[in-house]
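Quick one before lunch.
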Amino acid sequence: MIQYKTKEEIEIMRISCLLVGKAHEAVIPFLKPGISTLKINELVETFILDQQAIPSFKNYHGFPYATCISMNDAVVHGFPGNYELKDGDILSLDIGVLKNGFHGDSAYTYAIGEIDNELKRLLKVTKESLYFGIEKARAGNRIGDISNAIQEHTEKKHGFGVVREMVGHGLGRKLHEDPQVPNYGKKGYGPKLKEGMVLAIEPMINLGVKDIFQSEDGWTVLTKDKKVSAHFEHDVCVTKTEPDVLSSFELIEEAEKKNINLSWSYN
Ligand code: MG
Ligand code: MG
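Model of the magnesium ion complex:
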């Protein structure tokens, strides 16, 4: 059942969603070769707890960490661990926070050091597709309009693989609410968008084939062809007029530009 939010609830949610961007911002200066993904997770977890919030992912259906850190051919749900970042790595960091009873959930993909042009194109196109999807998040449209916009840009226009098994979702008092928001689909199909719906829109796009498999840890989702995957996620409220993006990449993009160990010029 879709949970529609009141205007008051939306403003409470905005605090949670913006806090996720601040958690990203807090860890960005530390993203450089040599740092372990477990250390990145610790820094984010400490930041969230210091803000009197709770990391949404920790213990969610048994997930053991505060963040999902998915390196290179990992699509989503990667475990932080002893792996140390190195030049050329692609790191997808997904963060969720629970504050004042509502969740925020936002992912961003970082390029460590220099990366080749094909990877830059993957990151650019995946991020662009998120905004094409958001543009369709308007009352009267359908979920399929969002899905189709993402698929058209990434798969039809650029030939990347759109992951089918993992999808975006409603967001609110629960981390995952109805409806599902696939990154592929047909215009005019699916649940109708109404004022007060909050959607986590999150294209998960593979450089190569769309096929994935689950690793032996029971969580990490990997690409079948071992090629890189990218992931960007915003939380968006459907209103009577323009889509209201509750999360923000503004602080993330500013911090990214200040870190000489990250490639961001693809933007
Ligand atoms: Mg997420
Ligand atoms: Mg999500």
